[in-house]
Amino acid sequence: MNKLLLTTLSAILLLSISCKQELPLDKDLTKKSYNLINQEGEAVVFPDIIKGNITVMGFIFTHCPDICPMTTHNMYLTEKKLKEDEIGDVKFVAISFDPDRDTPEVLKKFAEVRELDFKSWTLLTGEISTVNELLKRFDVKAIKTDETTDAEGNYEYSMMHTDRISLIDADGRLRKNYKGSTINIEELIKDIKTLKD
User: Fold this and answer.
1) Inter-CA distances, 132 with 34, 68, 125, 128, Å
2) Domains and CATH numbers, the chain
3) What mean pLDDT is predicted for residues 20-35?
4) DSSP assigned state of 34
5) pLDDT tens-digit profile of 100-131?
6) 43 bridge partner residues
């Protein structure tokens, strides 16, 4: 009887170890550096600025009427829940794929209106060629659409883009992508906890 119990317990233990959740991706982002500018107008290097931290990264543009504000809000709610659960050392990064309009000042105002905490949040912009290279690394697409000129002669456009939040581990590896505007925040938090284990 004891032998059967021991065998059963051993099998359960092995199953629980083998069933530990693994995140689907493992893409090393540290092999190339990108010179960018943060919301303070300071030059920064990605991925150096997130080194040693689990990072939740969103892709946005501040003129977006719907998806980007929802993505940013979902990241904000994730940060809030992590603080409630006393889970620290998680960085939040939002990179703009519209650097022509998203200057550091515009990004800072976008963050302040949404009450983003600059202790854990960084908003990034940069040269269009650098931003586009980084987008390719994350398989994110962003295309100008509805290009027009208004009555005053100002060039206006919208953007069609990938709806994405990415989870990066403390070693700078992309581990999972989520649909930013409709993300299951509990799933993201569970994945963050998995990376912390």
Assistant:
1) 10, 18, 11, 6
2) 25-196 (3.40.30.10)
3) 82
4) E
5) 999 999 999 999 999 999 999 999 999 999 99
6) 37
